[in-house]
Amino acid sequence: MMKQICVLMVGIFGLCACASKNAVVPKGSINIADLDLKFKSVQIDLTSDKYKGDIDKYWQPVKKTIPSHPMSEETSRLSGCVEFLFVVDEKAKNIKISQAYPEGAFDHVATQTLKEWRWTPTRKNEQKLPALLKIQMDFVSDISENKLEAQQHCGWQHP
Q1: Residue 96 parent element (H or E)
Q2: How many CB atoms lie within 10 A of CB 134?
Q3: What letters, b where the CB count within 10 A reaches 16 and e where it falls short, cover 86-117?
Q4: Residue 129 contacts by C-beta under 8 Å, 6 or more apart in sequence?
Q5: Could you read off the pLDDT of 7-55 as tens digits, one per residue?
Q6: Which residues on adjacent β-strands are paired with residue 121?
Q7: What is the mean pLDDT of residues 137-157?
Q8: Which of 94, 85, 144 is nearest to 156 (CA)?
Q9: What is the distance between the alpha carbons of residues 13 and 20, in angstroms, rounded to a whole number?
């Protein structure tokens, strides 16, 4: 009897693994297999061309704080940006900085801000499938000494 239960349990676990593997939405421009293990659970790659601009169709921010410009002596005269790659599933998880300008200047405050954000799944995403997302936070100072370089690197136009 015990042997039959063990065989049944192994069979059930095997079926569950197959079912979850088939439910994966096709990935796009970022090759998920090449990323860290922490991104392999992603079901929807919102960084891909296929899903570009579709974040609001799957996840909507319900708490989105704006990062404050860190006013240390070093950064008060800097403008820049931090671009993140992360998994969203009610909050940002597995946060990775994909690029930052100037490197290291705004990383901490931007990361702390992103950790405060909260998301809710839309009706289209009733299963709460985790999604890979890329966003950029901009830091602009009116007295910036590197405004032109920051505009070129970050791809924004601020007066």
Answers
A1: strand 92-101
A2: 16
A3: bbbbeebebeebeebbbeebbeebbbebbeeb
A4: 25, 43, 44, 58, 121
A5: 333 333 333 333 322 222 333 334 444 555 566 667 788 888 888 778 8
A6: 59
A7: 90
A8: 144
A9: 11
Q: Mean pLDDT, to the nearest integer, of 104-117? A: 95
Q: Enter the tokens of residue 9.
A: 């349990």
Give the tokens for residue 82: 């931090």
Instruction: Pick the more confident residue, 37 or 158.
Output: 158
Which helix or strand (DSSP H or E) is residue 61 part of?
strand 59-63
Is residue 81 a contact partner of residue 139, using CB atoms and an 8 Å limit?
yes
Say if residues 88 and 134 touch (Cβ distance below 8 Å). Answer: no
Output the pLDDT for position 110.
95
The CA distance from 114 to 92, in Å, is 7
